Amino acid sequence: MSEKNDIDYIDLYLHGSTIDDNILTQPLELFFQEIELSLETQQNEVWGIKDAINLSRYLFNKYITLTQIRNEITIYFNKNCQHACYFPYEISAETLKNENGSDLIYIVVTVKAEDENGEVIPYKQKFLIGS
After folding, report:
1. CA gap 6, 105 in Å, rounded
2. Do 110 and 124 meet the contact criterion of CB atoms below 8 Å apart?
3. What's the pLDDT tens digit per position in 37-66?
4. Which tops the pLDDT comparison, 50 or 27?
5. pLDDT of residue 106
6. Contacts of 79 (CB under 8 A, 6+ apart)
7. Which domains does the chain have, with CATH numbers?
8. Which of 75, 85, 102, 125 has the greatest number of C-beta atoms within 10 Å?
9. Which 8-state DSSP code applies to residue 41?
10. Which DSSP string corresponds to 31-56?
11. What is the pLDDT of residue 84?
């Protein structure tokens, strides 16, 4: 682990279960946690923060295109995710129906980052938004 002064950002890992895996210091890990919080936090769910993507409102709107959804997510990431400027990323979105016939939005965020050998690897995080 780096010296304390060498770390620009740290965060508690949402899914950590032990003292060894509950602190994030790597920029890619921090960016993925920012992505998860951005897509899963609902409006007014965090006290004092009213800005949220609120993708579920698109499930009942036939006039919103997938391009508009991707653009809104990109704008939100660029505005609210500290690590969005460090990594190139792409967002894909599609609508699906579940077995009950209700609508779902399937989102894949692909972040490109160098591995320890300097090779650029695409890392993916997937989300399914719906009821």
Report:
1. 39
2. yes
3. 888 887 766 666 667 777 777 776 777 888
4. 27
5. 92
6. none
7. 4-130 (3.10.450.40)
8. 125
9. P
10. HHHHHHHHHHPPTTSSTT------GG
11. 95
- With tokens 């579920």, the residue in question is 56
State the Cα–Cα distance between residues 7 and 26, nearest whole angstrom.
9
Report pLDDT for 31. 92
Which among 93, 75, 74, 89 is positioned nearest to 123, based on CA atoms? Answer: 89
What distance in Å separates the CA atoms of residue 130 and residue 20, rounded to the nearest whole number?
34
Other Cβ atoms within 10 Å of 32 Cβ, number: 21
Q: Which two tokens stand for residue 114?
A: 């160098």
Residue 65: count other Cβ atoms within 10 Å of its Cβ.
10
- Give the type of residue at 7: I
pLDDT at 46: 66
Tell me if 26 sits within 8 A of 9, measured CB to CB.
no
